[in-house]
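Case study 2.
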Amino acid sequence: MASTRADMEKRAASRRIGAIAGLVPFLAPYRLTVLAAFLALVATAMISLILPLAVRRVVDGFETSAEQLLDNYFMAALVIAGLLALGTGARYYLVTRLGERVVADIRKAVFARMIGMSPAFYERIMTGEVLSRITTDTTLILSVLGSSISVALRNMLMLFGALAMLFVTSAKLTGLVLLLVPVVIVPIVVLGRRLRALSRENQDWIAASSGNASEALLSAQTVQAYSHEDASRARFAEVTEAAYNAARKRIGTRAVMTATIIALVFSGIVGVLWTGARDVRADAMSVGELVQFVIYAVILAGAVGSLSEIWGELQRAAGATERLVELLNAADSVRDPAEPVVPPEPLEGRIAFEEVAFAYPTRRDRAALDSVSFEVAPGETVALVGPSGAGKSTVIQLLLRFYDPRAGRIRIGGYDLQDMDRATFRRSIALVPQDPVIFATSARENIRFGRPGATDAEVEAAAEAAAAHEFLAALPEGYDTYVGERGIMLSGGQKQRIALARAILRDAPILLLDEATSALDAESERAVQEAVDRLSRDRTVLVVAHRLATVKKADRILVFDEGRIVAQGSHDALVAEGGLYSRLARLQFTEGLAAE
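Prediction:
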């Protein structure tokens, strides 16, 4: 926790208000809306500055006998007020709509960037923190774009406009007002720096809280099974309290800054007005001029006070923008080439590993694969077996180019993976992972994920081939039954059969099975194995398995140990060879017979 806090403090210290400039590329497509909103803003500010002149005329008009002239002043005041109302409504509509549009674009851009990042990226950042940036940080930006920036610009115009009109009204009183400026600026600068650091720390703790909650809730069953509810509650409470404490400090600092500025400004104004009242008594200025000066002084004070509050919002938005820009500019270790090769689709199902060496980014000192070379011919079924951690699943990860090898080349259909767009060669691959992903939708749509344009009949045919039709048809609403978040309504075996049906529906020339039958009972496993056998006749199949009974029919078996291929051949040949495979087979089949 201490290191996390230190990292947050370091990130907070690096933030600058100029980070808001990161929003410019998202505003650029809507420059006409920005211009219209700015014009409306300028118009309302100018109208607001005209109102005190009308009030002065009205006040001084009471001292004249020109009744018609007085009526005209009142009528002009009403017209100005109407124009102000229309301009304010137009400004609100344009600015608010612009804020919603830009934030929607930011969310889409960040999600589009994050969904394509390689697994190596997510070894360095929690998914919950990414979600926090997409939701919490964009909400802050929406507040600023939809309100704060507009209000800040308007108050800046009002400030300078009111200051100019104060000079016109009374240079003497305005000089006294300007003496207050340094007194007001000092607390803004001093407290603003503190507020900036606290705002960023607050957002970082909120992100950490979101990440902690996401991890715990996604693993709720494991947490409950090991009776770790209290520990999880305590960890979440600790992070949440840290976020609250950071927010409390930020709110306290902002409250002190606001109160200090308002107190200084209004105290000064009272002193200035006292001087003005004495000038009226001495006939140095009219009552109307004093009222006009008072109104402009109030406008000036209100603008300064508002800017001091908005400054805190801008600080928080700058931090949010910086965090989102970090995601948009995040470097990915796996990149598509600038000028990719465009191979014919679908690719030929020929796979080749050429002296491939690889270590995971978080475990660089340990080789997951060490000079691995093998080739799989089109239509061949090759099984990868060996102890846990031997490198079998790493082959699948590299073949999908979730990572790039440290050395060597990987080819599909004769083309180097790093010469093609990832989306191009992945269309020729279907995957059934060890831990299948089931989406929170219907069973039918989960299978159709393999090929979105597939018909209902094709979906059901794939389910039958994967031995999933019987249990799907028995669900309350059949294939259209909602299966819950991460398929919580399904058993492990049912999830794997849906994942296999998804891969079958994809109809790709290369099929990757990573422990695809590990959660199936004997009867379902036999049915699925028969389906795999049928599929294997027309496509290249790479099977990763611990249960050797599922790979006996493979054309070839590659035996992995400590990141190397230590043997290869058919099941019978490897058993007769008497090496690692023979030992694994003896253990598994002997235990199986004993269990029976």
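The domain at 9-328 is CATH 1.20.1560.10 (ABC transporter transmembrane region fold).
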